[in-house]
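Table S2 (continued). Query chain:
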Amino acid sequence: MHTELVAALDIGGTKIAGALVDGSGGILVRTQRPTPAREDGETVMRAVEGVLAELTAGPLWPSVRAVGIGSAGPVDAARGAVSPVNIPGWRDYPLVERVRRAVDGRPVTLVGDGVAMTAAEHWQGAARGYDNALCLVVSTGVGGGLVLGGRLHPGPTGNAGHIGHISVDLDGDPCACGARGCVERIASGPHLARRALDAGWRPGRDGDASAAAVAAAARAGDPIAQASFDRAARALAAGIAATAHLVELDIAVVGGGVAGAGEVLFAPLRRSLRAYATLSFVRDLTVVPALTGTDAGLLGAAAAACGPLTAEKQGA
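Corresponding output:
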């Protein structure tokens, strides 16, 4: 279906990606530029405008009916503003208004990157066909989003489902958000790796001390690396179970760089979830890897911008 298209922007601290997406999730045109994250806000906006200029210059642009933005957060969808932690030049930046000007007044929808990933997984990924889902991004931070009653549930500001800041250790380490013992403080890639180092794990000759290196060590049988992943999995399981008890879920989908560890993460995660999700109405909750990969931000931005188009296709 090429008659009605959606333009999508995926804005993060490393890159600004843009695409034209059709009603079946096909990416027809794509472009990207590096994010000048250390520059002032207007310089960052010029990079966004550059991506949009490439999209609007193409022959398919007249078929675009709406624009979706998935942005690193925090976002405030109600006000159309963003304050990404990793883009210091944008604080309460009026992104929706600036994008609207660049796309001749077409409707613009803004969601956080966790909600965008959720929209993508519900439309084209592992949550497809499920009416109640939690989708998580476990990477440098831990974000997420919710599908409730068959619909994306971004909440008033676009941040609903932000599971990373559920506290699962009341006396735990202070989190950057100001609370203690948050899921993110335990399960994010940097904190997972730091815990392994503090416990005595040492990187190989290449000096790689990332979560991916800890995962490789865990796969090779290193007990300290395995213990670090086990603790991260317990924190994630506790957060998933708490969310399931609150809103009743059918499935939890986990993506992001840390999820790339595969069974090193998912085996203890499933085991821990059985220990935390014990009541009858959450006992059948399944947890699976995400499927949409690096296109999740673009697909999710498109889905969030054009719900009826995607819902029609999903029901087909």
